[in-house]
Every structure is written in C-alpha cells, then in structure tokens.
Amino acid sequence: MSTYAAIPDAKFQSFEERSDPTQVAPRLAALRARLGEMEIDGFLVPRTDVHQGEYVPDCDARLAYVTGFTGSAGLALVTADIAALFIDSRYTLQAPAQTDTSLVSLHDTTTVNPGEWIAENLPAGSRIGFDPWLHTPGRLASIREPLEKADIALVPVSNPVDAIWTDRPTAPHGPLEVLGNNRTGKSASDKLADLRTTMAREGADAVVLTLPESLCWLFNVRGRDIPHNPFVLGFAVIPAQGNPTLFLADNKLTEENRTALAGTAELADKSDFESALAALAGERKAIWFDPETAPVQVKTILSQGGARLIEKRDPILVPKAKKNEAELAGMREAQKLDGIALAKFLAWFDEAAPRGGLTEIDIVKMLEAFRREEPTAVDVSFETISGSGPNGAIVHYRVSEKSNRSLAPGELMLVDSGAQYLAGTTDITRTMATGPVSEQQKDHFTRVLKGMIAISRARFPKGTTGAQLDILARQFLWQVGLTYNHGTGHGVGAFLSVHEGPAGISPRYTVPFEPGMVLSNEPGFYLEGQYGIRIENLIVVRESEIAPGYLEFETLTLTPIDRRLIAVDMLEPAERDWLDAYHARVAREIGPHLDAPTRAWLEQVTAPL
Asked: What is the CATH number of domain 176-320?
C-alpha cells in the first residue's frame, strides 16, 4: 500500500543524539570555576528562556548544555559540591539516561519541593544566584520562601552559563509572516479593541506581553524562531491609547514588515525593551503583566520605576484559546488532512510491521513523508514520539540514532505525533498491534480507551474545569490500582503551539471550559520495560444541543483506533456505539481521499465491532 519503494529522509526532524553525559563533568567544572569568580555559592539553571515558553531555541537551552537533560521542564542547582536536577514524573526514565548520575542527583518534583530540598542541603548564609530574565515571580517565590527561612539568599546575577558556553548557537533568524483575516477570523485592530476594553475594566494604562504565542495571536503574525512552532520571539507593550510596540530581533525590522503592520504596531529592537519598560514605569502608569509568565526582571523594572502593578493572568490566553469560526474551520481542515496522512501511514504500517525490520526512525520518516504529500504541511508540531516495545513506556521518548531500536513483530508500537498545516495544528497518538496481543495488553488498552471515550462523551455544566473532568479518564485504571503520570489533556493552538493554556484536563487546570477551546484527550498506561499505551484525539468544547446551559465535546481527530487491542466484552453498549459511530465517520470523511487499496484497508479497520 506504500507509495514509497524505500524509506524517505525526514525534512522536519532529525535524530542526532543531543545529550552526551561525558560532557557534564567538564561543564560543571567550568561553571563552578565561574561561580567562584562571581563569589556566589550556587546558581539556578532553569529550562526556560526569557519568554518562559515550553520550547526554547538551541541558543537558550542552558539546562541541556549543563546537565545533558533535554526535557521540556526542569531546574538544576549547581554549587561547589552539589549538582541537583529537579524534574517531574514524565522524565524519571529520560533524565538518568541523559545526564551523568555519578555527578548529578535526580529529584522528582511530584514528591520533592526544590526550595525545601535546597534549604535542607545548603548551609545557612549561602548565596544562590539566579538570572532574573529566566524565572517568573510566581515560580521564584515558591523557591525563595523556604530559602529565606533557612537564611539562604537568592541573588540576581548575570548568567554564568552564558559566560562558559563558548560554542553557543546563534539566535534564530526566521522570517515574520502577517496572516490574512480569512485565516485568523478577526483583524488585529479588532483584537486590540477587545483587549483595550478589558484593560479599561481593570484600570490598566498598558499591558506587557512576554509570551510569543500571545504576541503572535494578537497581532496575527507567525514566524519560524522555534522548531515546530510558528512563533516570532519578542515582547509587546500595548498602551490604552496609541500604537502598540512590538520588540523583535533586528533582522525582522524590515520595511516590508513595517508596511504590513503599519497602523497596527510600531516595530522596535528587542534590546530596547528594558528601557521602554523603565520609561513606562517612570510615568507612574498602571501596568498589567502576568506574574506566572513574565520574567522577574519585568516586575523589578516596573516596580523600581514607580509603576502601579496589575499582576493578573495574561489577558490574551483565554480569548486565544476560544477559537472563532474561521479558526475552528481551519482546525477541522487540518485534522482532516492529517487523517488522510495517518490512514496512509497506518495502512503501510499494518503491511510492513509484521514482516519485521522496521526501526523507530523508519516509522518517523514514513509518517512525516505521508504528511508532506500535503502541500500545506509546513512542519511537524513536535518531534514524533516513536516508541517500540519498552521505549513506548518512556512518556516523552525521542528516538535518536543512539536509542533507535527495531520493532519486533508482536510488540506494541506507540506513535505520538502532529503537524503544522497552514490551516491549523494537529496532535494525535495511536498505539498499534504488530502481531498476537496478550490478554493483559488488551485489558490495559481497553481501560485507556474507556477513559478516552468517557471524556469524549462527557456533558457538563458551564463553569466546569479540567481538574473536575480528569477523573473520568482515570477511573477505569484506578479500579485495578493503575494510573498514568501525565495530564489527560492540554490546550492546542490554531497554527500555533501544540501545547497552550490556560485550560486543559488534569488536576492542575482550574480555568473553566468555554466554547471554542481545543484540547487533547490522551489517557495512557505505561508498563516500564515492556510497553506503553496512549490514545489521543483532539476535541473542541461546544454548547450542548440537548441540555441548555451545558457544554460537551466534539471530536476533531479522524483516525482509526486499533480494534485488535480491544477487549470488546469490557465495553459498555454506549461505549461500543460511540466507537462504531466514530469509525463510521472516519471512513466517511477520509475514505474518499484515499486510493482503492488504502480505502479498502480503512473500511476493514473501521467496520463495526
């Protein structure tokens, strides 16, 4: 069924090994020498950059440079005789494989508070440095409080990692693109008018934006500064009256960009951002910024300059999450295009996997190739998680040339992937059988499936949050003493980040759902050393047509779920009906776009249970 005689090369992603534990020792030594010169006892190295995003450019991957750990969240403390890496439960398998555990101690933040650990392990009177551009007031406060009780001081300093990073990559220089209203559904001027109405309600003279996704959405721009995310890295200041200012890299300050944004925003160099904040503060203005996403330095400049601080959530987050009709039409189109590519891929996989010889990298390359057949596919939305057998149990596994293994027939294969189409963003996980399936595997898979269906079928009153719904997905695993150590769902942007807030499905999401919010629905189960199972669809919140005042979900993803892994007798009639209806819809909407052999395969795998 494949249109490819050989495995094509990947264009959007690579497989080099990005961690080298042997480099940890010399880099720790260099950093410690630098700390001695600075006369501080230690330094905090976070995963974040100045924009506090989940994804950072290579030039800002300081945590990976020092420790080797490349996960999307983490914090390290380095002193003269301690190197501690704090990671969450998603990375308890990945982190020890990437760092030198003889030099770096690992701590799971689900059970260990970094601030409390530091207070217990450092002597009173210690001075710990931090880069005020790389921590938010909220996150730093959680560390500072236990340290102050232990008489340990946090001291803002220039970043010592930058001083020892002799081969640091250059900053990104991707182009800036201004989107048309046909794709965004709303002009930047209208979005600014709405924002200013909100500002007036809060008494704000200006808003400071530091999140690239907020800036991109508000001004209807996109870029290529972050791998797999169409972001422009920058800052923005929006006054209650007059033109906003976008602070961007100097290579984006072109006449073409100025013309495209004329009447909407002025352009200034990123290096001017600090002085602009100081000037704004000097006017004693009321300035709104988000203490959970803005750097500490932003708060420091504003407060020392005399501004009145309005510390509230970024006012762009909720409007951005509530997709308008044009954005939703684009997201539906993107899921359909992705469904066509996934059908071709899964048909190929079903034919090739039982024969043996496929590697995890082969699988990534083929999936990307099928996606690239669509001309509007411009990138993957994150690096594909391609975990065969035991590697599927590593939640955020990234295959490299070093870790690449061959899929043995009979093993489970977990593929979590997504794409950036001009129309929108996708994210999907499927777990596939490659041969005979054990009763235990069927039991685990079906419990995960039941949880995914429970979220899909949920109907709930307005005001409900993801923290309240999360249990629906876990209940069937909990019944037998099992669970999974990640959230059930996250927000998804419209041709923006595959991970966005402020709503999601997990105990930490307390923002109520609103119509138009697009979320992932992805319960899972992981048996260390054997296999991983995850099933993920994208869903959108909509008004219930049956129960006024209630909300429900519409499923957007259009890709079959492997029926060979289902213990059918474990499904309730309503669950079977949901799955049969879903598969019928997949066949109806995707089938006409496939060639005859692939369409025949799709009809077979979407037949009623």
From this structure: 3.40.350.10
